[in-house]
Amino acid sequence: MSKPNSVGVITPQTARFDSPLTLKSGVTLPFYELVYETYGTLNADKSNAILVCHALSGNHHVAGYHSEHDKRPGWWDNMIGPGKPIDTGRFFVIGLNNLGGCHGSTGPSSINPQTGKPFGASFPVVTVEDWVETQTRLADRLGIRQFAAIVGGSLGGMQVLQWSINHPDRLRHALVIAAAPRLTAQNIAFNDVARQAILTDPDFHGGDFYAHGVVPRRGLRIARMLGHITYLSDDVMGEKFGRMLRTGAYNFGYEVEFEIESYLRYQGDKFADSFDANTYLLMTKALDYFDPTHHHQHSSLSHTMQAARAKFLVISFSTDWRFSPARSREIVKALLDNNLDVSYAEITAAHGHDAFLMEDPQYHNLVRTYMERVAEEGRS
Amino acid sequence: MTNATIRHDFETIAAWVKPGSRVLDLGCGDGTLLKYLKDSRQAHGYGVDIKDANILACVQKGLNVIQNDLDAGLSGFEADSFDFVILSQTLQAMRHIEQVVAEMLRVGKQAIVAFPNFGYWRHRVQVLQGHMPVSPKLPYQWYDTPNIHLCTVKDFEAFCAQRGIRILERVVMESDREISFLPNIRGSVAVYRIERSQ
Hints:
The structure holds 2 protein chains of 2 kinds. By secondary structure, chain A is an alpha/beta fold.
């Protein structure tokens, strides 16, 4: 597929790790696999690598297409490619599916070789710190000692933050987009409603639904519908759907009537067909647990960020109420308190939390300009 | 505003900034001053600005810049966390002057303020002729000016005196020249270095 500025057709790769990994929960995984994609070329001194960390429902397929006939590119294709803000003509970009995912990396839906059945409920809960640990091992495998930058939005931004604390010498730049230093009670509450929808679905079977030949579709749909509400702003929902009715009249029943209902159900259905319920539970739990100050005295982010050495670009979006600009400013303050290099932009955008995935001139110009500096620095 | 005057402004400010200082430039614009301080004084600095284009311009120069509305205060900055907080040609466009100056002196050990002197004789002449002044330092018409809080050298000094703000140094200038005789009449730009009285 010869699309302009596309990385083209990409074949995912798999890395198998046989050294045991002890997770934050105390559980040890004897081995695991991570599926990943790369775009661009690693330079001779391996100094131009960029790691892209994905969010709740993301995966390793960040850019490009999987076949000539593939209609949908990777989830951040507008950001990554030749001549794009993260220019694959300059950088070697890595996207991976996190441990516990459902797109090829070892996770609840993978077959446990000891039993010959999917892990299901027996797959351990993983945390952002665990992900960062596995990402360092992937970097080691690829011979990358230090990333030029690590980039992520939302839950991906949290991984970037964790990298900067746990492995300060392994990244030069940190791009933390639409993130928060930890969830609020309200954020956790939304996640728990989503989890309850899945956990109470009769088709969930305690997480071992694979054996029953079913998936907890109802739960997954509701979880995704709820999620979608929090990703969009009130304004954009109003603009897109308002009170529009599908048939133009009230039917005085409970079938789909308003366009917004139709949209959410469509999103829910699409998601339930492609995403694993156990992975969804695990991802939301990783979000809830994320708190880099957890192990530190005083639970102060400023104190925690003392370890960081990277230069930061922090970006928020004006209508994001899931991780509002105020949450990004908490991160910025902690960086300022430690005299770290940081730039912060609050992008005026209508799309709420989802704006980080959208094409916006200011947002994309900013990332482009910043990444040009990163590239120039790499050359000097 | 001519480039030459900007340079002179900046030179005055830079001369006051000790090498290696931690500086915060409020209303930093495209980052010209901050870049100058970084290059000439090895300052570790952050700019603050509200405009998208200025954020881009600063990032392009490799500067740290924080997008923030100054009128919303400086709550993201710790007390005494900067050696110098600079407000260059921005004071007159602020909505809450008292709050901004108080915040500058909370966050910074010292503050540097530069503003166009409304008492400059050409401005006075235009007012006497019955018009709001329009000049190279105040290049706007009354209806489109962002400058909502114009003051004179005398006004600013009275403001400081009333609030217990100590003036450490003052340079008043016109076209690259420092004006020491009748500065409130002959000078078009004033630059002050101030601190809290202990």
